[in-house]
Amino acid sequence: MEWISEYSYLATLLVVGALLGAMPVIVPLFISPRSRGKKKRDTYECGVDTLGSAWVRFDISYYLFALIFVVFEVDVLYILPIAVIYDSGVYEWRDFIEVFIFVGILFLAIIYAWSKGVLNWRSE
Amino acid sequence: MPSNILHFFDNFWLAIGATIAIVMAYLSVNAIMLIWLERKLAARIQRRIGPTRGPFGLVQQIFDMVKLFSKELITPDHVNRVLYLIAPVMIFAPVMALCTLFPISATWVFHDYSVAVVLLLAISGVNILAIFFAGWGSNNKYALLGAVRAVAQNISYEIPLILSIIPIVMMANSLSLYGIADAQTGVPYVLLQPIAAIIFIISATAETNRAPFDIPEAESELVAGFHTEYSGMRFGMFFFAEYSNMIIVCGLATVLFLGGWKGPYLPGPVWFFIKVYALIILMMWFRWTFPRLRFDQLMKFAWMVLVPLALINLLITTFVLKLI
Q: What residues make up the domain containing A17?
């Protein structure tokens, strides 16, 4: 059961990190001066009055990049376990051929996205 | 085998306390010194003097800290309060856990995980979430644009980053940071994997949102990007996290490519920190040398140059490893 204490060590550090991160943003609430003013709490927009909300729909190109990212991120994680035992002498050439086919298919994903024009940022 | 802080202290909470004390002391001093270093370096590169208060201008940073702490925290009216308030805390949360992953010398490591590389990549993903929370929660057009760009940039450069790590993992046959550094007997991997090293350092610069990839916070077009609406110490947390993240990516580069603690004459920790700070100075040098890329150039560079190059490098590595 060694791994439970191993990973609870890291998990505890994450929680403590969040608590410690909260301290510097709480302390100034007690020691900082307060100012008043009508415009103080307005949204910043370079000196003019704010027009509308920022929560609008934006460029679809970002979404396409996110899609390719998901494809790649998942696939790349599949290579990691192979990499750990790669060339350890058990499989002769089999692991090379498998990695080759896998990366080849990954390449097809890039070529497909390239030919569909996703990688060229939409220009008008 | 390296020592383990959990075994060293026996008591779990004692180990946690010691870790926090060491890492927090290190991170605070480190952030202050790095900001000083960056300002001095920038000044020298631009033929200015830079901060001058106290010996070598060191006291300036203390003043700046006091100033940041005593500033009023302004919460604008139209923000999404939950996201807005949680973001500065969240961006700092992973930093401490990440710092404990690094082997500082052959015997000094807080805890050696067998999957440390994956853990490090997974935990540092929280960063992107925090940046997007900040930008979306601010309800500000500049902040939103900055956040959207930051997310697109970070996810794009994460792929070449991981693809440049995989050849290293193949050569070391290990995912543990200690194992990878230990596997570099004699020649560091930077000489065996120069392409991977170059891809890594470019992607790492982009991952930390530093110039020439600082498009998320490009001050000449987006005011301050995703942290436009943050004031005082809330802004300070983003600032602090940026410098802590530099330490983490440079530490990772040191372990993966420069052989970690290994080096002649000097003891391990000294070599480790010399290598880390040399890489950090390199990244600062980038900042004051290269002009900022345009956003579409940035995305094209990641997907059309770095990813294919990293994949080809991966294939060559697999082939060569089979031959020898």
A: 2-31
pLDDT digits over B57-78, tens only? 788 888 888 888 888 888 887 8
Asked if B68 and B233 touch (Cβ cutoff 8 Å), the reply is yes
Q: Write the residue in A50, A88, A107 that is nearest to B311 by C-beta.
A: A107
Q: How far is A77 from A56, CA to CA, in rounded Å?
A: 34
Residue ranges per structural domain of chain B:
74-323
A64 in the same domain as A26: no
How many angstroms separate the CA atoms of B11 and B14, rounded? 5
d(C-alpha B155, C-alpha B147), whole Å: 12
Please determine, for residue B35, whether its predicted confidence score (pLDDT) is greater than 60.
Answer: yes
Expressed in percent and rounded to 5, the helix, strand and coil fractions of chain B are 75, 0, 25
- Cβ atoms of B227 and B159 within 8 Å: the answer is no
Q: Does A52 reside within a domain? A: no
Mean pLDDT (chain A, rounded): 79
Tell me the nearest-neighbour CA distance from B45 into chain A, angstroms: 31
- Is A123 inside a domain boundary? no
pLDDT of A124: 47
CB-nearest partner of B314 from A85, A93, A103? A103
